[in-house]
Amino acid sequence: MTRVTAQLSVSLDGYYAGPRHNGAGDWVASAESAGFFRVTRWATDAMAWRERQGFTGGLRDTNSEVVAESFETAGAYVMGRRMADGGEVPWGDEPPFRAPVFVVTHRPRPTLLRGGGTSFTYVTEGVAAAVDRARAAAGDRDVAVAGGGSLVRQVLVAGLLDELELHVVPVLLGAGLSLFDGGLGLGAFDAIELSPARVLHTPQVTHIRYAVHGRAPLVFDDRGSGGGPTTAVD
Amino acid sequence: MTRVTAQLSVSLDGYYAGPRHNGAGDWVASAESAGFFRVTRWATDAMAWRERQGFTGGLRDTNSEVVAESFETAGAYVMGRRMADGGEVPWGDEPPFRAPVFVVTHRPRPTLLRGGGTSFTYVTEGVAAAVDRARAAAGDRDVAVAGGGSLVRQVLVAGLLDELELHVVPVLLGAGLSLFDGGLGLGAFDAIELSPARVLHTPQVTHIRYAVHGRAPLVFDDRGSGGGPTTAVD
To answer: One GO biological process from the UniProt record (chains A, B) (predicted)?
Structure first.
């Protein structure tokens, strides 16, 4: 059964890139880029990722298996417009996706056909419509929300995300682009409940896959503790 | 050898409690409390924690072993003033620490002796002095930074923290008190590097213990990726 999945490499303090690049100068030289490449280093070191990019070398390890699995299980992708624009040139004639990609955008544009089975279809009817288009194209495989982070958040908040895998990298960036900073639209006594479906750990990164159960009220429950916090309050 | 350690139960989006209680009305009825008890539920359900509180019942499981270990390895504690004040009444005559506790405060106060080996000594010379006092009292065991979160952050930023264990709970709170929100004083191209020392996972929580290596420059390193992000940019 097709699931809607997303994965993101994040720092221990929750950033998937450094502070947003203001557009002046080269993105690659920006703090956004420095943070992004730090938290994705485990993947850029992985053979399975490098093969998809047409690069040689890389490590054949647990991290590489995680990358390979994410490519294999994705029958179609949903992608944000900024990520699609940013990747269009560097991904070249044979982008790593090898599947249909549905780009959420406000600007109509003809479908872009690339080699290796990748196509970029531009969807102007919103996130839910893009997920539907991807679901129809994914066959028995999953719909992967490729990013960016704001699109992952939109899919989560819309209640469309079945599975979220975070690759938690042992670094603190202190500032940057956060999956959750934009707000989840939750009330003070509301939460989104998940459960860990798989945890894999390596020295470079801890991979935690969550099943998303959705919104639930945050009711007071001290389990008869007497109300005495013995861990942190501020 | 005595290490300076800290642990904190946090939501997947990094909050160890709900939004800060403004002091109006009962803390226990506040959103801060609701978030706090959600992320610490794994501990309040654990037999090892309940025993220390004088409560019956609880689960004897991996989570309970994590709690027991944290009590056993702590030879002395450092604590923030607000946490100490908040716990003074509910912890009662035999607080769960059973070790000397050094409270960082601006208000001089005589040492408070409690039963079971717990004492509260009020240190007005700052965080580093409190850590030194605790180190001298800890013997061969560790100095545990009990919280609150802002004290843990101060100890981390001061470069005094050897080990940080986060108990990552599968819930998104959307807002609240965050270990890192207060800022780490890092430049745009600086980071704090850590490495995972132990990962334990249960359905209720993922325990990740990190060795803290300290500050390091965040240098651009795409490992020859060609600069084409295939994971999230915003």
So the answer is: riboflavin biosynthetic process
Flag whether pLDDT at B234 surpasses 60. no
Min Cα distance A21 → chain B (Å) is: 10
Residue B231 included in any domain:
no
Inter-chain contact B17–A232, Cβ cutoff 8 Å?
yes
Range of the domain at B157: 4-217
Q: Which residues contact A80 (CB under 8 A, 6 or more apart)?
A: A103, A104, A147, A148, A150, A151, B234
Number of folded domains that form chain B: 1
Q: Rounded to two decimals, what is the model's pTM?
A: 0.92
| Minimum Cα–Cα distance from A218: chain B residue | B34
CATH number at residue A199: 3.40.430.10
What's the pLDDT tens digit per position in B39-56?
999 999 999 999 988 888
Amino acid at B151: L
Contact in structure between B44 and A223 (CB atoms under 8 Å): yes
Instruction: Write out residues 79-118 of B within 8 Å (CB-CB) of A.
Output: 80, 82-83, 86-87, 90-91, 96
